[in-house]
Amino acid sequence: MKISQEEIKKIALLSRLEVKEDRMASVEKELSDILTYVAELNELELDDVEVMAHAVPLHNVLREDELKPSLDHNLALSNAPEEEDGYFKVPRVVQE
């Protein structure tokens, strides 16, 4: 499948890419090769091929949620450089 330089310029404009004139011939060949390959893929008979999201099967390895005791509130605050009203006090990062 052939693509023209005018089509390349329009695609470049729409995608906000800069294609320099000295690279236009190589971009034209590369895009034509890609379109030819996609056209070949479209000719494949895929009716009996199962739809998949990944090339290999993936299985999540999950553990059961277990309720466990967490860090004591006072113990956690004992490591804080500053605390206020039972919370960590941190420096302001957003200036008004």
Structure overview:
It is a single chain. With 96 residues, this protein is mostly helical. The protein is 36% helix and 4% strand. The chain has a domain at 5-43. The longest helix is centred in the middle third of the chain and has 19 residues, at 24-42. The radius of gyration is 29 Å and the shape is elongated.
Layout of SSEs?
Blueprint: H1 5-14, H2 24-42, H3 73-78, E1 83-84, E2 87-88
Antiparallel strand pairs: 1-2
Keywords: ATP-binding, Ligase, Nucleotide-binding, Protein biosynthesis, Transferase
InterPro entries: Asp/Glu-ADT_sf_sub_c (IPR036113), GatC (IPR003837)
Enzyme class: ligase
Keywords:
3 helices, two-stranded antiparallel ribbon, mainly alpha, 36% helix, 96 residues
Quick summary:
GO terms for molecular function: ATP binding; glutaminyl-tRNA synthase (glutamine-hydrolyzing) activity; transferase activity. With 96 residues, the protein is mainly α.
